[in-house]
Amino acid sequence: MKVELGDLSAFVAVARAGGFREAARALDASASGLSEAVRRLETRLGVRLLNRTTRSVAPTEAGQSLLARLDPVLSEIDAALDVVNGFRDRPTGTLRLNVPLSAARLVLPKIVPRFLQAYPEIRLEVVADESFVDVLAAGCDAGIRYEEKLEQDMIAVPIGPRRQRMAAAASPAWLARHGAPAHPRDLAPGDCIRARFSSGAMIQWVFERNGETMTIDPNGQLLVQVGGAIDLALDAAVAGLGVVYLFEDWLAPYVARGELQPVLEEWWPRFSGPYLYYPGRRLVPAPLRAFVDFIRTDAGMDGGAEKKS
Fold this sequence. Notes:
The chain is elongated and about 75 Å long. The strands form 4 sheets. It has a 6-stranded mixed sheet with strand order 4-3-5-15-6-16. Strands 7, 8, 11, 12, 13 and 14 form a 6-stranded mixed sheet that branches. Helix content is 35%, strand content 24%. The chain starts with a helix and ends with a strand. A hairpin with a 4-residue loop joins strand 1 (50-52) and strand 2 (57-59). Helix 1 crosses helix 4. The chain is an alpha/beta fold. The chain folds into 3 domains: 5-72, Winged helix-like DNA-binding domain superfamily/Winged helix DNA-binding domain (Arc Repressor Mutant, subunit A, Orthogonal Bundle), CATH 1.10.10; 88-162 and 273-308, 3-Layer(aba) Sandwich (D-Maltodextrin-Binding Protein, domain 2); 163-272, D-Maltodextrin-Binding Protein, domain 2, CATH 3.40.190.
């Protein structure tokens, strides 16, 4: 059975995007052309691959099975063709990164502008996602995660600061009303602003001092989901609603402006910095290799050698 590679690619693009128009925008192609390619593929296979309604497009059971097998194959083909890119003076193409919001806010702003200035023919797409996704299944070339969240069989490259701290802070008004807590256990009955992941798991408040570690499950009126709602948590803390617990670098501008004051600073726990990670069992696309080389050699980054996770 002869099937055109372009028709297979069109099906994968539409299935990933969830629609013909969305896929057409991503590929800079026509929706009618993609629709014809998918219809031609379905005719040759003799099975419907996509269920189409006026509002959505979703793979059928047969389509899901085909997509699961095609995704890695087409990714390898793209990577193989991209080897030629390495022979150019300047790599071209698109680099797609899947990162947590903390990396988008605290790590990438110090890297991305200079990287794109150094490689003007590379296009960078960044998806901020707090769930721990398969980067290839998500259509991305690489991701940023912390060491304990790295997937298996990945190459991991240090990116950004190598040591960070979690920090607690409250507004001067809140501290004037309640007083500064002297010990983490003083937070348990207090007004604390909590956060949880999209999975529903709560972010634990961990404190360390002189070898002692304490995990606190404090109370509070406000609970936000990690992501865009973190801004609401910070605004609420500035307004005097309670104590907030986040990355030290995230709180630093608020502390510098006097809107928040550190709480229990001698108890703030340290942890290792994030890693850029990508699959180790495939050819590395030229834009990703350029990015890896950039973060490893950039004078502003405290990087290091690649490692297997």
